[in-house]
Structure formats: C-alpha cells, structure tokens
Amino acid sequence: MLNILKSKFLRQEDGAVTVDWVVLTAAIVGLGLVVVMPIVVGTDNISQKAKGYVENVKVGFGNN
C-alpha cells in the first residue's frame, strides 16, 4: 500500500506545474512594476512643471 501511494504521488505533476505558474506570474508582475514605476515618477514630474507654467500664464484683457 505504501509503495502504491508513493508511486502515485511521485508521478503526479500538477503541483509542480502550479508552482511554475505562480513563480512565472510573480516574475511578470515584478518586471511590470519595474518598468511602470519610472514612468509614473516621470509623469508626475512633468505634470508638476506643466502646472507651474499654467499657473503663471496671464490671460484676459490688458495683460501683455
């Protein structure tokens, strides 16, 4: 009985495939964050500069 249980357990590969998918998915998410974070920081910097420019623009009659 013990030999049958061990042989069935050792032949099953479902758990190994699941672990592979979890590791690959975590790697993809991690790489995605590494790529996206510089874009987020750069976008925030550019938006702050644009905000400062727009706040200093004079509009209306009599402004040169």
SSE topology sketch:
Blueprint: H1 2-11, H2 14-56
Descriptive account of the structure:
- The chain has 64 residues and is mainly α.
Categorize the overall geometry.
rod-shaped
Helix content: over 70%
Q: N-to-C SSE series?
A: HH
Spans of at least 5 consecutive residues whose pLDDT stays below 50 are none
| Distance between the ends | 94 Å
Mean pLDDT equals 84
Cα-atom radius of gyration? 29 Å
Total E-strand runs? 0
Query: Given the structure, what is the number of helices?
Result: 2
Let me know the largest β-sheet. none
Percent of residues in beta strands: under 5%
Structural class by helix and strand composition? mainly alpha
Features:
0% strand, 64 residues, 2 helices, mainly alpha
Summarize it:
The chain is mostly helical and 64 residues long. Helix content is 83%, strand content 0%. It starts with a helix and ends in an 8-residue tail after the last helix.
